[in-house]
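Quick question about two entries, pasted in order.
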Amino acid sequence: MGMNILLAGVGGQGVVLASKILARCAGARGEPARTAETIGMAQRGGSVTSHVRIGEGAYSPLIPRGMADVIIGFEPAEAVRALDHLKPGGAVTVSDRGVYPSVGAEEYVPEKMLGFLRSHPLPGEVRVLRADGVFEQTGSYRSLNLALLGAASEQLGVTTGEIEAAIRELLPERLAAVNIKALLLGAGTAETA
């Protein structure tokens, strides 16, 4: 059975690395995985989305609108922007930490985006990761991507052990420990909204 996962964030949040980790988890299970990224002005904080399609029926790497089983939102507004890809009853895991635009920052309220996600009829489940709690424990927001994978692990049907193994394969040893810590924190602290 296939799984379509859309990861949505902004440049510098580790969206592409998270998609590579999910593809590695699928490969370790012997399942085919296809990935593709759509990157706007990512180096300037622009939108980044990564499509991960797992299973035999994934002929194209891009997820059609209305076909994503799970959306992982690295930022609330990007999760809302990606919502048209979610299938009815699909799941959303999202960070509560907003990345403020350089223009119009005074008008952007991440909590309003989270409220929209909670009230929208599409998601079957919305899980919210409190990013500040991860930061307090790890000392870095740079591992938020792995905390989100931990928070979404049940929705993805993957264990934290499988994700940890992929982290150890893909990251240098000096970075693995803090990212594994974030993964486990995310798995234990996300709240169902």
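Here is the second entry:
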Amino acid sequence: MAVADKFQKIIDFLTSGFENREDSIYEGMMDEADDYAVQDNLALSPNYTTEQKAPSAKVVSHPNFKGYEVMVSEPRSYEDSISIVKHLKDRKTVVLNLHLLDKEQALRVVDFLCGATHALSGSQQKIGDSVFIFTPVNVALSSESQKSKFIRDALWNQPQA
């Protein structure tokens, strides 16, 4: 008898996961099925109800928003960099052309503006010879390298066979 009890326990353990759970699994489905009209075990067209909700919030334009603005700046001295930082704080993109400054002053201006842009969580990039762009945090700055331009041109400008 002891051997038969052990076999029974093993069989009960192995089959315990296969219990009939039909009532708990299909309960929600059966409640939904009662909503549909049936005839000869065929579902008829359901009655759909459409509820239209009133919009919860209105979109209103901000009276002070003037759009995105790009400032082109050609500073004549290092002191002009303070006004450029004010433009960045006002969330304006600044294109900086340093052709009017000597190399030493141009380097100081670029260093100062890079630090200010970093502090404002903005982006900066050199876009030409003594031309830089500084963007505030609300403007994404992306660029394409010379290598990727070459690969793109090589792929798209292939002769047709």
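Reply: The mean pLDDT is 78. The longest strand covers residues 123-128. Hope that helps.
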